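[job 0412] stage=complex_fold ligand=T4K status=START
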Amino acid sequence: MTNLEPFPERIYVTRPVFPTIEEVTEKLRDIWAAKWLTNNGPQHTMLEHELTEALKVPYLSLFNNGTIALIVACQSLRLSGEVITTPFTFAATPHVLSWNNISPIFCDIDPATMNIDADKIESMITPHTTAILAVHVFGTPCDVVKIQEVADRYGLRVIYDAAHAFGVEIGGRGIGTFGDISMFSFHATKLYHTVEGGALTHGDAHLKQRIDLLKNFGIKNEDEVVMPGINGKLNEISAAVGRIMLGYVEGERLKRIRLHAVYNEELAEVDGLTLMPPCADDVKLNYQYYVIRIDEKVFGRSRDFVYDELRKYNVFARKYFHPLCSEFTCYRQLNSASPANLPAANVVGQQVLSMPMYGGLAEDDVRKICAIIKSFKC
Ligand code: T4K
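[job 0412] stage=complex_fold status=DONE, emitting structure tokens
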């Protein structure tokens, strides 16, 4: 097959960006001096302010992870009944609906962007529909204009799962300003992280009050608890790491832009591989992920073959997102989960492979990974 040697150590799909120990130690000293570890401390307050600017959004609320943030987003808008979403996403997206007693209704995707197909949303609306929960998959923006048009026509709310979209902009506008609420994940595996963490962004001061109550048990003051909230608070150590990481995010993004270019250069001419879609000129991407699609009929090998063989070379690519959420045992009985309703998602789910992508990866490593993939072609 190839005389390329396996990598001496595992190459994972991603590696977290680590600040220096010294930077973290310095911030820990501040936290120790303040004697404040969580519950809206000074690091939390400063990070909320800094992220509001960095993401170019009017309001932002920090959370202990993106999943709890999304659960609270649904609560804050009082969603119920059915919410239209995509099957091509991480498990958290439909699960937050279930945790709110809402039925996820799966809508097919646009195979080019791998995002929810805005032209198909209308056909999924019923009298029970209250919202659209769309995902900017791999940081590629959804068709935000069309989605808003449909939502406005039917009086629906729009929530964006922007877990992958830190720093993405459309026409200079922060991606978190579209729809009613957007959720960002700051998990360790993301381009920007707070170890674990997340945020909700939106344009409404009253909504911020409600979200901040919901993430703190609904406690208004020592004498009043005004709604059944949850514990969604980000602690001071995570917030401090987040403040440091703001100084790393653009450097990491630039390294990934370079690695994207190498993947594109090496794989562009390979029949049977579809590379990440180019974006409109006014879109600023974050280059967090590099995803290919493998058409078995043309490439001669299936995605699963490539995934398995790469592991023999110590390359641990990932099948994000396979299985589709509509294939999970908890959802596959839903009418909207049937493969007949989701033809594009079912094809993409069988073809997709997330390649190693992180700033610490050498360009030569990327070239070698591409050479290994090309050696599989038959
Ligand atoms: N919505 C969407 C669309 C999402 O993608 C996610 C999360 C969410 C919502 C929920 O947000 P959070 O509640 O998580 O904030 C990873 C992440 O854990 C998850 O946050 C992320 N999406 C998902 C796409 O990827 P896994 O199960 O693939 O993670 P894991 O542990 O297999 O890590 C992937 C690779 O990263 C490992 O093979 C090695 C490397 N790694 C990982 C960790 C944690 C390290 O080198 N060091 C580490 O500390 O879900």
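Residues 12-16, 65-67, 89-90, 92-93, 135, 161, 163-164, 185, 187-189, 198, 316, 320 surround T4K (CB under 6 Å).
[job 0412] exit 0
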